[in-house]
Design a protein that fits this description.
This protein is mostly beta strands. The two termini are about 10 Å apart. It contains 1 helix and 7 strands.
Length: about 110
């Protein structure tokens, strides 16, 4: 099993992404309180800052993230892994509650 800092929850949520050079709507494959994976064929640069907006049951979530990794279309589902940056405590709590209510995609080895 993979070791992760945060439990990832497999879920498809529509997410709007906006950067200096891109604006598009995509779908998440998974989300955690630390970030999310967005399915996309758009080539987002590693390290680029992205404004994200998505809706969870508690309301609209707006966060800033950084593209940490990307997966090409020759592999499984193409897309990018985005880590949340400077997440306000209340926003972190909303995302964590959402993830805690669903079974995790991966478990930490230490637990």
């Amino acid at each position: 099993m993979e070791q992760r800092a945060h439990h990832r929850t497999e879920v498809q949520v529509e997410v709007t992404l906006h950067s200096d050079s891109h604006f598009f709507v995509g779908l998440t494959n998974d989300i955690s309180s630390g970030g999310l994976f967005v399915s996309t064929y758009k080539p987002l640069e590693l390290g680029s800052k992205i404004e994200l907006e998505f809706t969870l049951p508690e309301g609209v979530v707006r966060v800033i993230g950084t593209v940490r990794w990307r997966r090409d279309s020759t592999e499984m589902t193409p897309g990018v892994g985005i880590a949340f940056e400077n997440l306000p405590a209340e926003t972190h709590a909303i995302i964590k509650r959402f993830c805690d209510r669903r079974p995790p995609l991966y478990y930490d080895l230490d637990e």
